[in-house]
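In practice, a research group might receive sequence data for several interacting partners and want a quick structural hypothesis before committing to experiments. The following worked case mirrors that situation: the sequences arrive first, and a predicted assembly follows.
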Amino acid sequence: MTDPATGTARQRPGAGRPPVMADVARLAGVSHQTVSRVINGQSNLRPETRLRVEEAIRQLGYRPNSAARALVTRRSGTIGVIGSKSGFWGPSTVHRTIQAAGREAGFFVSSVNLPDLTRDAVSDAVEHLRDQRVEGIVLIAANDEALDVARAQEAVGVPVVVVEGSLYNARWTIGVDQAAGAGLATQHLLDLGHTEIVHLSGPLQWTEARGRLQGWQLAMHQAGLRPSQHLEGDWSAASGYRVGAELARRDDVTAVFAANDQMALGVLRALWEAGRSVPDDVSVVGFDDIPEAAYLIPPLTTVRQDFTAVGHRAIEILQTAIGGPEPDADVPERLIQPELIVRASTAAPRETEN
Amino acid sequence: MTDPATGTARQRPGAGRPPVMADVARLAGVSHQTVSRVINGQSNLRPETRLRVEEAIRQLGYRPNSAARALVTRRSGTIGVIGSKSGFWGPSTVHRTIQAAGREAGFFVSSVNLPDLTRDAVSDAVEHLRDQRVEGIVLIAANDEALDVARAQEAVGVPVVVVEGSLYNARWTIGVDQAAGAGLATQHLLDLGHTEIVHLSGPLQWTEARGRLQGWQLAMHQAGLRPSQHLEGDWSAASGYRVGAELARRDDVTAVFAANDQMALGVLRALWEAGRSVPDDVSVVGFDDIPEAAYLIPPLTTVRQDFTAVGHRAIEILQTAIGGPEPDADVPERLIQPELIVRASTAAPRETEN
DNA sequence: CTGTTAGCGCATTCAG
DNA sequence: CTGAATGCGCTAACAG
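A structural hypothesis for the assembly, expressed as tokens:
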């Protein structure tokens, strides 16, 4: 009655298009405002009225239009996640976890996967996300270029949580303590009696790769040893294989610490092909603890990262970043501690050399 | 001038909030309508006017508000993707590809990852997505329950493209020809001279698992052999290992066809532990061709699926599903052909047994 | 406790 | 070729 179909031929409920708030109001015999109150869970409503409205809502199968709501509230209820298209295990696991956690927290989650995390690509992705008026962004697997973009965005007002990036260059961060993990791995090898421990790193544009490299170096130094030049892979089993083939020719090397499990897998294979036994001739340690790690030949000693925790914390942080008016106090560094998983790919070196 | 700030204290451009179309219009000295035309690339505009507007847009850093646009056009520009939280390689690869392809096609992509693809969970996810007024949904790794939901949605009007699900039960589908792939694998083993070929399947709620099972059965029958009872795993290396350990005790088995590479990996490990040589004693074939397959011990013969193609096709199909008013003609079954990759884990059986 | 009145920022008629 | 109205569906003040 109150809505006299002003000319655009408002259809009766039950016709083609989805019901709107006015339809519910009409059916319940209240104003559309009251419907709004019910939907937003306001307290000042006569229980009976609420019930009538709720019944009408159910009957019509009404669902609020989030675009309309976003328009007026200026809040989209959406967060964005930027990740890499490449399927490395860690980042993609984190990506999934974040998506799930974001939804659990009541957000819509808009994802964008980039072929490469170059400055321009990340920048575009952020624009894309801002066009949707996302309330916050989670940026995964950041390299330095991506971090620049993150910083720039902070200035513009969209909070960006950086996951697994350098934990010093962004305001809101969360990640695993890579250096500590590498330290665990290296120390394990050291404890076993190894002194010639080679590190096969990831690409050094990746902050994780650098963190693991540094952890290894530090542990070596603390043991009074001079770390040899590290070798650099690209995270793939193929690169691990290539490097492993080289290492197989060197007699001095008794242990390899690979920066991820895939590369370790490649090393295992190369060593096997060269007839060098793991762990009798060479010990191998990986990083990540992929589900297959326990079933490699031999079962791989590695460093486990709790990606689920990372994902959940990322969302928690994003929520405080969105909600709070910047405590401006010290941003606690959010670091999750990894764990060493000892399996059968490591053992004491065959002959001690001192 | 034309916008007399009716009381809500419209702020000057450059103040806190993002510029709106009216700001651009004012700066360019045109009506906001003209700005709209420029943005939507209409043709009937004096070049000079267009330029002035474009300049103003750039100067202000204006970006259209997608919520407002969605409200009036009733099109969100968003598609939804429903996947599983579990990180199986195939589905998660497809998920990433779809996200990327969706964005390339100009959509916003809203993702939801479910712990389990139960009917209720999928149903919720669809609701969630419909609340955003997504224009279409891609559902990945469907089992039968999920397919029911998909069908139900079709009725309500949101097109749902089912990826890797049963290709007969949904209107819009795309996937790899699982049975053909399994046939390739089985035939390869048959050609090598194997007759006792065991199949380690995935969980049979998964349509992929059923497809591969059927492909294996068919190939066996066509070779005049009676396939033995298949064994069922859960896609994990752990389950492959368990089954492999059993198989290692059986002398009659000379070949194993595992429904994915992870399970094959577990089988490899179990066989190795039991001192049975691959491929000399037992041949093993996987499915998926994960990046590590070539670096296992020994390198794994497997079936490669082109997941990138699947992702792109999924988006293409979704676009026609959204755009076209249902040709209602025969829905061509969209099947992508897999490819056999022969590596070192397969060979002729040691002794022929006929 | 509930209804009325205004817009949110944009696209879509329709006039000029 | 351009501008002036109108309303998308909803929430946010205000009135009652």
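Before designing any experiment, note the following. The longest strand of chain B covers residues 78-84. Chain B has three domains: 21-72, 78-176+307-337, 178-305+340-352.
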